[in-house]
Design a protein that fits this description.
Blueprint lengths: L18 H20 L2 H17 L10 H36 L9 H14 L2 H11 L5 H8 L3 H18 L4 H9 L2
Length: about 190
Amino acid sequence: MGTVPENVHSLSIEHFMPFEYVFKKHFKDLHAYASAILKDTSEAEEIVQNVFCRLWEKRDRLQIKQSLTSYLYRSVYHESLNHLKRAKIKLAYQFYAKNSMEDSNNADEKISLRELEQRLEKALNELPEKCRTVFQMSRFEELKYQEIAERLQISVKTVENHMGKALKLLRHKLVDFLPAIILVLLNL
């Protein structure tokens, strides 16, 4: 097996070498890089694995316009930042939920975080499959509509329609919880 060409222009991943070789060659260094960003080795491992999974999933249509190593490091960097952003959102939501419950004088308004999570999960499971998939990719994986459309091989307009339908149905199902989940759904 040869080495990774560092000055590659518009080649698909299949032109490099077997995927396993790429994984073994870069995993340790990418893991160390993600660990430095996240300060958590297990989370770093998950991030790097996600990057390689996405690389595998996109292997047929991926066009790398710089070196493979640069592409992998940039992917790990962005995935790590997205992870930190999601963790920050989750922490802000938990803080908001905790303070909302403590500040409330009305016992009926004191909902548990567990109940909210259960209701949200139930509402998500009641969405049509494509609608749920698009919603989760948008809100939890933080993908842009164009990226979702490419992954699912549907039009951007179809993604927009699925998101509109999902948000409408979730608002209807979770109307009692709307103030508590606004941060989660709007990614604030």
